[in-house]
Write a structure and sequence with these properties.
mainly beta, 6% helix, 5-stranded mixed β-sheet, 22-stranded antiparallel barrel
Length: 927
């Protein structure tokens, strides 16, 4: 096997050396312009004509056939200058360039013997049907983002066909898991190595274009099973430009009996300010340019609690009696204030500096920074009346990258980049683990402060503390060469070294009085401290790719490529956990093996009519396992099997998918386009936790281990209709529908126990994945009068995700099939209205945005006994559940939270979507 991979590497190296002779280079953050220059009178090609991208140093000369190609053009709209001796110059304005696409611009020049001034024309609009769209890829520009009622980039991404969101708002592409997406900023990966999520956030005002590739993306991208999202940030122009936008608002709902604490409209409940400034750096003759953006947002949310108790209000249960604060004055210490339970403070900033060292050599630096503070997840219910006991999550992420782009000739350039991504996430109450304000709970368990039969805590602190830190060091080299008018050759590679550190534990106290300081449960202090977890690992990954884009004609495109990927976890694992549970699972450790993957990919598009193009794509895709799972329990602590331990597995195989896509683009009119796409994805080696049993006795030792046992498949189709403005028309919009079935393997745990003991293969059945949405419908509509006003709206409909029903044990012994029921349907409408003004060089506007206009109850999480968020069968099955507590409340109400929270105990407003929200804001722009 190793000889096989060595041969593959040798072949790749030979190809690399060969193409280096052509000085081929590529960058995945730019587009291309090509076309033909001819004589208007004779139709003959004009060799040697100059084609210049005005305002840049980019350009080319036409060849003997009049053909030209300009590479490495950042996304945006440009003026293109055609110049040839003996002919009139022509300026073509508003030529649009998109990432990874080829824009075509042919022009016939007029001989200068005819008397006429320089010709200035508007470019024909970018064709709705893209000739070189060989797999599903959408480019969303900054103009589109600014026109819609959104302020987060994932809101525009989820509107694309084949993309859905789960009940927590995470994005899923074509039925894949939320962590199966590769996220890049300016061509550099910004994945958090712990879970492959997007490590650093980026604001809408910093983005020039968002490129979304779903399914069968090209060989340039890897370590993803479902899709690629690439953000290209704005660059400074030739003139100083500044913008400022601010808004504030609050929730305005008719359901005030449901959402506690939002009785009055507070226009400052949510606030957001964002600004940008960019242009040339003075004294550099416009060779050095900058762009800066910053965003700050404060949000109190829509879920509130009451400050009834303080963490020091310890609760002791004595039979049917409740004793408050036995070490204090015996009464609740809270002040009764209404407290936001889902508040959020966030900062985001970007900086982009570029310097033109010489006409064909450019140096750039990118910085992205974000900081977020919000309550740790899963605490609202417990700490609703003890809000000071909550822990908060502090996230800080920074990404630096420096790049060098060198244009070697009109047909070749290369980009070399080095980057560092740094993330930290701290989840705790106080910074210092020995903070004397930490309160001890009875028997060291904060849940001993729960009111009987409820989820509400009467005191205590959350003593859990988690800290994650990562650093990813990246080197990346990309090449492209327009070797011939037909062949555009691309290849390159990257190397990434991660440094991960995780610490997780629960603070302990030696006594309940709180006199002693808390202690960190290091195993060195006491071998019985088994819950403390810490690891520090340095895995590496690398990749190389080769791609030939063959433009066999203007409408016949063929892409053929392959990608090699490498991963080494650099950690130890136990290959025989079952056989070592008696001798010690930490005594049989060996080094994990390095993983090698080779992924071929092919895609093509060809015309069937003058306005219709069919595309087909196929590929193999791999993704490394989330590192937080493979490094779990690095001490191999077995908890003496008193409770069930869980073990990671650094020797996991990469997850793999094989995908197919067939699509049709059809222009119905010049401004109306229809798109139909069918896709299929087969996924293997999916990561899943498996319960294993060692021994034959009833008291067998059980444990969980992360392994490659699961598989899934996704099949579906999307239909979309796109309408852009007609000339000076006001109307534009789109509507798309996705039908999808995402199913995964499920095995009954009890059957698996028996089959392991009898050495049988466990039968697996397919069930809907927990994030599957069968039907999704999105509609976007915009009405605009240029530079005067605009109105836009987004309407979305999506079917509910699966769940497994359950009934109280005393009502029925019925066992329901896994994920056999669906949550209720969801529907949402957002609107935005904006009026534009101009005062000399200052442009400004006033806008109104309304989210969830209809104020609908979209049920995200439900009681499995009813399938609804606001009622449960427990209400009728156990009507006396709170009788003892109600009796205590009636005898001494001053000691308790309001009784209405028992009346509405099963009414979970935190499981619903956000109620109607109204925002009012202004924007300013100075050129």
């Amino acid at each position: 096997m190793r000889r096989k991979y060595a041969l593959v590497l040798m072949i790749y190296f030979m190809i690399l050396v060969l193409f280096l002779q052509f000085n081929t280079v590529f960058s995945a953050t730019t587009g291309k312009l090509s076309g033909t220059v001819t004589d208007q009178e004779t139709g003959e090609p004009l060799p040697g004509a100059n084609i210049i991208v005005v305002g840049t140093n980019l350009g080319a000369a036409s060849n003997a056939q009049g053909l030209y190609t300009i590479l490495n053009i950042p996304p945006g709209k440009y003026t293109i200058l055609f110049r040839f001796i003996g002919y009139h110059e022509v300026r073509v304005e508003n030529v649009e360039i998109n990432v990874d696409f080829t824009s075509h611009l042919d022009y016939a020049l007029t001989p200068s013997t005819l008397e006429m001034d320089e010709v200035v024309v508007l470019a024909d609009r970018t064709p709705l049907v893209r000739n070189d769209l060989t797999n599903t890829q959408v480019a969303v520009t900054s103009e589109t983002i600014e026109a819609l009622p959104i302020d987060q980039l994932n809101q525009i991404i989820r509107l694309q066909p084949g993309i859905t969101t789960d009940n927590s708002g995470e994005i899923h592409i074509r039925g894949g898991r939320s962590n199966e997406i590769a996220t890049q900023i300016n061509g550099i990966s910004v994945a958090n190595p712990f879970d492959n999520s997007q490590a650093v956030g980026i604001a809408t005002n910093a983005v020039q274009e968002v490129s979304v590739s779903a399914g069968t993306f090209s060989a340039e991208y890897g370590n993803a099973l479902s899709g690629v999202i690439n953000y290209v940030t704005k660059e400074g122009g030739n003139n100083i430009n500044a913008t400022l936008r601010a808004w504030s608002g609050d929730h305005a709902t008719n359901r005030k009996d449901l959402f506690f604490g939002i009785d009055e409209f507070d226009p400052l409940n949510e606030q957001r300010i964002e600004g940008t400034v960019g242009g040339p750096i003075p004294g550099t003759n416009k060779k050095a340019k900058f762009f800066l953006s910053a965003v700050t947002q404060k949000d109190k949310g829509w879920i509130y609690g009451i400050d009834v108790y303080k963490p020091t209000d310890i609760l002791v249960i004595d039979g049917d009696s409740l004793v408050f604060d036995p070490y204090g004055d015996g009464v609740p210490s809270g002040n009764g204030d209404i407290v936001p339970m889902m508040s959020k403070n966030a900062w985001n900033a970007t900086a982009k500096l570029s310097y033109e060292i010489m006409p064909r050599l450019k140096l750039s630096y990118d910085l992205v920074f974000d900081y977020t503070k919000l309550p740790g997840s899963g605490q609202f219910r417990n700490f609703r009346f003890n809000p000071d006991g909550r822990r908060f999550l502090y996230k800080k992420n920074i990404s630096h990258s420096i790049g060098l782009t060198h244009v070697l000739n009109d047909n070749s350039f290369y980009t070399l980049k080095f980057a560092g991504n740094f993330t930290s996430a701290n989840n705790r109450v106080f910074d210092d683990p020995f903070d004397e304000r930490y309160v001890a709970s009875y028997e060291g368990n904060v849940n001993n402060n729960l009111f009987p039969q409820t989820d509400y805590l009467a005191g205590g602190h959350n003593l859990d503390r988690d800290e994650d830190e990562s650093a990813s060091y990246i080197g990346k080299l990309d090449f492209v060469s327009q070797l011939t008018p037909i062949h555009e050759l691309r290849f390159g590679g990257d190397y990434v070294r991660h440094e991960l550190q995780r610490e997780s534990y629960t603070l302990l106290h030696t006594d309940i009085s709180g006199v002693s300081l808390p202690i960190i449960p290091y195993p060195e202090l006491n071998p019985e401290f088994t819950e403390y977890q810490y690891y520090k690992n340095k895995p590496v990954q690398a990749a190389a790719y080769f791609l030939d884009k063959m433009e066999l004609s203007k409408s016949f495109i063929l892409n053929v490529g392959f990608r090699y990927e490498y991963f080494n976890a650099k950690a130890l694992y136990n290959p025989d956990l079952i056989g070592t549970v008696d001798s010690g699972v930490a005594e049989n450790l060996v080094a994990a093996e390095a993983k090698h993957m080779l992924a071929p990919r092919v895609s093509l598009s060809f015309p069937i009519t003058d306005q219709g193009i069919i595309r087909f794509s196929y590929g193999h895709f791999f993704q490394n396992p989330p590192l937080e799972q493979i490094y779990r329990n690095p001490r191999f602590e077995d908890l003496d099997f008193i409770s069930t331990p869980s073990f990671g597995n650094p020797n996991l195989e990469p997850e793999k998918s094989i995908q197919y896509e067939l699509g049709l683009q059809q222009a119905l009119t010049e401004d109306l386009k229809f798109d139909l796409t069918a896709y299929y994805k087969d996924v293997s080696n999916l990561i899943q936790s498996r319960r294993l049993v060692a021994g034959e006795a009833a008291a067998s030792k059980e444990f969980n281990v992360i392994t490659n046992i699961s598989y899934a498949n996704v099949k579906g189709f999307t239909i979309s209709l796109l309408k852009r403005p007609s000339g000076n028309g006001m109307l534009s919009g789109s509507i798309d529908y996705t039908y999808q079935l995402a199913e995964g393997a499920f095995e009954d745990p009890l059957d698996f126990f028996l089959d392991v003991r009898s050495d049988r293969e466990t039968e697996q059945t397919f069930v809907p994945l927990s994030h599957d949405r069968t039907n999704t419908l999105n509609s976007v509509l915009t009405l605009a009068s240029a530079k005067k006003w605009s109105a836009s709206g987004i309407a979305s409909f999506w079917s509910g995700t699966p769940y497994t029903p359950s009934l109280p044990a005393n009502l029925s012994r019925v066992e329901f099939e896994n994920n056999s029921a669906r949550r209720p349907l969801n529907f949402n409408v957002d609107l935005r209205f904006e009026k534009f003004f101009k005062l000399n060089a200052l442009k400004y506007s006033i806008f109104l945005q309304i989210n969830n206009v209809l104020d609908l109850d979209n049920e995200r999480i439900i009681h499995t006994s009813t399938g609804r968020s606001l009622n449960s069968l427990e209400e009728v099955n156990n009507p006396t559940r709170f009788d003892v507590l109600r009796s205590q409340m009636s005898s001494n109400p001053a000691l308790f939270f309001p009784e209405k929270f028992l009346d509405n105990y099963y009414q979970r407003e935190d499981w619903l979507s956000e109620p109607r929200e109204i925002r009012l804001g202004m924007s300013f722009s100075l050129n």
